[in-house]
Amino acid sequence: MRILGIDPGTGILGFGIIEQGRQKPKLIDAGVIRTPVHQPLAERLVTIHDELAELMDMYELQAMSVEKLFFARNVTTAISVSHARGVVLLLGQQRGIPIFEYTPMQIKQAVTGYGKADKKQIQEMVRIMLGLSEVPKPDDCADALAAALTHSTMSVFSSHNPTV
User: Fold this and answer.
1) What is the 3-state secondary structure (H, E, C) of the chain?
2) What is the pLDDT of residue 35?
3) What percent of the chain has pLDDT over 90?
4) CATH T-level assignment (fold) for domain 2-157
5) Could you report the per-residue pLDDT of 73-121, keeping only the tens digit for each?
6) Is residue 29 among the annotated active site residues?
7) Which of 19, 43, 57, 67 is catalytic?
8) Long-range contacts: 47-56, Cβ < 8 Å, 24+?
9) 54 annotated active-site
10) 57 assigned to active site
């Protein structure tokens, strides 16, 4: 199963694609989509749409795992991230990719075994689980891979249904 993990954002959107077979998960591709800070939101969303659509079209994906926006201290940031999530969910739906959403706590629990793990613990477990020599950079990329690994783990232990 090929899983696309997404850490949504308008300035930096992290993505990670893993392949889950009978053995441990394997890294296929990972990175970030960046948009200019002072660019209008609508233009940023077009950039995210176009780059993510191209990425989705390059790989045969069986699932998409997206981090839920659980809580945000800054309302403006939350709204902006929600816009990016909307683009992501629409693209997945249009392509018929089953979409699964996980809270940050669920991702931390699945990857580290501890729902309140810090960023460094998550990054290190992503590195170990994928057999990488270094922690994926930037943080958004590691977070997206953690989302993909979460779905990989959840799909093995349950018949988890898509939320969208």
Assistant:
1) CEEEEEECCCCEEEEEEEECCCCCCEEEEEEEEECCCCCCHHHHHHHHHHHHHHHHHHCCCCEEEEECCCCCCCHHHHHHHHHHHHHHHHHHHHCCCCEEEECHHHHHHHHHCCCCCCHHHHHHHHHHHCCCCCCCCCHHHHHHHHHHHHHHHHHHHCCCCCCC
2) 97
3) 80
4) Nucleotidyltransferase; domain 5 (3.30.420)
5) 667 777 888 999 999 999 999 999 999 999 999 999 999 999 889 999 9
6) no
7) 67
8) 48/10, 48/13, 48/84, 48/87, 48/88, 49/87, 49/91, 52/13, 52/15, 52/87, 52/88, 52/91, 53/91, 55/4, 55/15, 55/17, 55/29, 56/4, 56/91, 56/92, 56/95, 56/97
9) no
10) no
Pairing of strands 12-19, 99-102: unpaired
Q: What percent of the chain has pLDDT over 70?
A: 91
Q: Copy the structure tokens of residue 13.
A: 């959107």
Q: pTM to 2 decimals?
A: 0.91
Among candidate residues 7, 29, 124, 134, the one labeled active-site is 7
Length of the chain: 164
> Which amino acid is it at 71?
F
- pLDDT tens-digit readout, 41-62: 999 999 999 999 999 999 999 9
